[in-house]
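Re: the 449-residue chain
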Amino acid sequence: MNKKRISVLLNVCLVLLGVWVCYCTWSFAYIKGLNPKADEIKIEILEDDVIRNTYEGSILDSKGNIISYAVKKGTNGGVIDHECYQRLVGFSSAAYGKSGLRSLYRDELWTPDKKTSKGATIRLTTNSDIQSIAYEEINSYTEGESCAIVLENKTGKVIALASANAAYNLDYNNLTEDSVKKANSIEGFFLNPWQAKHAPGSVIKAVTGIAIAEKGYSEEVYYDSGVETVDGHDFHNFGNYNYENVALVGGMQNSVNTYFAHMGMKVGSYILRDVHERLLIGKTLELDFGTISSEHNLDKDISKTNIAASAFGQGKLLITPMNIAMIAQSIANDGIMLKPYIVESIITDSGKVLQEGKKEAVSEVSDKKTISVIKNALLETGIHYKINSKRKIGAKTGSAQLGNGLNRATFMSFNEDYTVVICVNNTSKRGSALKESALRIFDALEKIK
């Protein structure tokens, strides 16, 4: 073989080798795991292509009423049919991303059925009449970030989950650069109020009451002089009132800080912490509509001052409104805490069931005898709040100071069938100001039974 032929063959081999190396380099770049950034880009391209050719799945309420639906293919093609659901459902936008249930269930809503090119349908546990009334009530408040939670006591179903921000009402159906910029300028705008951790205020006295009742101290009388001194720190009642002879029911009715500070000390940090943990306070909970977390700090700070303050709702205790609703639900349900859920089912157009909600007990808070003591104390407190005794509504208000001159105002309530919690963060209101809103929601619940 002459030198010319050898040279040509070598050049051909070099070219083929170069092509092979380039091919391998390109191929390996897209082998999952070898190049994570390339993986992400490739997945995004594929997902965007699918979404552009897919009708977003519909979201329905428990009666089959349409909440959101697609009017055209692609991320900007969905419409939320009721303002009261906008913050819960959220948005799915090519320009502004995603939020709410549309973010949590993105895969289900955007994986197309082969026959219809439409994502799966999500049916919620909510009742739109109750959702609408709950939203109207909290949307009427002129300050702060508010939420209304309605749970079915015997199942854990979420009947309503509404939230509002008095600073701005974002139209999720008509997002613009200016409207999203305005929303983002408001601190915590896209954090649902039912997920916000703050000091709970006096609603936590129901939890301390469980510990008091378990120790057999519910009938023990405390003499309230208007001040309880713990390690040199003076705890006072609201308005600096003194109530003289106080036991559990009177302490709950008049929300006597000194009584609960004293009894919290008597019960001790170990029992208080144990009761908190049975109520899942201090845990991170993955719910089908979002994650909530809370802190009791009774394992980290067992100083007398923190124990006393935590016993009446201040100290280093941080919980969410959803935690408060779960506390009330467990008391109404004889001590059995159920996991709240909002997704009844997720089903494709071809009939494939992707998810089904179910009743799930997550904690046995205490025995029925102890819970009956607390339930009775809260029913008596409801009557003390001038709620007609025939309605059998247990209630407790809370007005926690947030350190910025404003409050977290809470109204926690329940009857045999439902729990209703209304909470407003960063408000000058006190919890008692929310009573009428809660009662109007109970009125509406009576009509759906």
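The CA atoms of residues 149 and 161 lie 5 Å apart.
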